[in-house]
Amino acid sequence: MATGHTVGELAEATGLSVRVLRHWDERGVVSPSRTPAGHRLYSPADVVRLHRAITLRALGLRLEQVAALLDGSDPDPAATLRAHLAGVDADLRRRRTVRDRLAEVLAGPPAAAGEDVLTTVLREMTMIGSYVHGYHASEATRLRDQAATLADLLHEGVAFPDGAHVLEPGCGVGAQTVVLAARSPGARFTALDREPGQVAAARARVEAAGLADRVDVRLGDVHDPPGPVDHVVVFFLLEHLPRPVEALRALRGALRPGGTITVVEGDHGATAFHPDSADARAVIACQEVLQRQAGGDAGIGRRLAPLLADAGFDDVTVEPRTAHAHAGRPDLADSLVRRTFTPMVAGVREPALAAGLTTPERFDAGVRDLLRTAEPGGTFSYTFFRAVGAVGTRSASTRSTSPTNPSRA
Ligand SMILES: C[S@@+](CC[C@H](N)C(=O)[O-])C[C@H]1O[C@@H](n2cnc3c(N)ncnc32)[C@H](O)[C@@H]1O
Hints:
By secondary structure, this protein is of the alpha/beta class. 48% of the residues lie in helices and 18% in strands. It is built from 16 helices and ten strands. Helix 7 (137-155) packs parallel to helix 8 (175-183). The protein is globular and about 85 Å long. The protein binds S-adenosylmethionine. This is HTH merR-type domain-containing protein.
């Protein structure tokens, strides 16, 4: 007669409930044999596996990951564990941001007259811990439109030589990734994002573009980049980070001597439009305030030179690149104003209202006025900043893998 432990005995010994043990059996984590009467019977090997499963679960791995690791069917356990570590690190950083901001708010000056501490905290922390632009399908569309609209302006002259390994942290849905890879047909790319949903979308986009053989999309955090790599390229990521210099230092550490970093960021302060409108400027200000509350900086473009220098990069150059939509550029009026900039600032409507920054009427009037600048007689300008920095002195051997970039010419 077969010997072993019943599910009840193991529940008692491990502290897991019978329900959890049954669920783990159904999900293939630990699947014991059955007695002729159909009861679960855990063999000594099942008990060993159960204890290993409990250890892996305590790390926070998902049940299917635990099952694959214990079955030996995970093709790269080290990669799974590294990706998990990156996720844990990202979570810790998010929690630290929330903790620091909460401490700051609670230690700050007394709340506005008549406001209780809970209201102050709710107002100040509306956006904390979340990514200000959100992860909705409309934001993915906006990022794709932004990349397509601005490809010539932002990517012009950015090309990496054959054989170079390029890292793109904060790749989002892969909108810039496919442009970068298409413009450097002999380079290899590693694209990184901390959000699994973005990674999945970027991977699908890379595959659809037929670039999967030389573009690897991974879950990971910019503060812990894989390396060494020859070049780094960053689009619209630093604006969201509470400590951008820390991220830049980490990226510098991932670069080989002679490597370069290319950073492209916007600056809402460098927005100009006609007809001018106080309501439209107030909408932009809502986005700036919320991004600041989330730990970011919508005006980071103007800070790129000092940030790269503080992070230890050499030979820093910065090039402002302005998109100006007017009657002679109806394509830009449509893509930049209607499909890129306005949807981005309009996307903060709910949090801006929740934070008490504006009223529905004023916000909607401001969005209408922004769209008005794309109509006949209107104009709209936005300036992006493209910075390039290098690591160490370029040697003859590394020079051959340097990117072509007009800002360095
Ligand atoms: C504005 S999107 C830009 C995406 C892409 N670079 C583009 O221009 O289309 C910023 C992205 O950075 C990611 N991100 C934010 N913080 C990050 C971090 N610490 N490490 C890696 N990715 C991060 C977000 O998940 C988001 O997908």
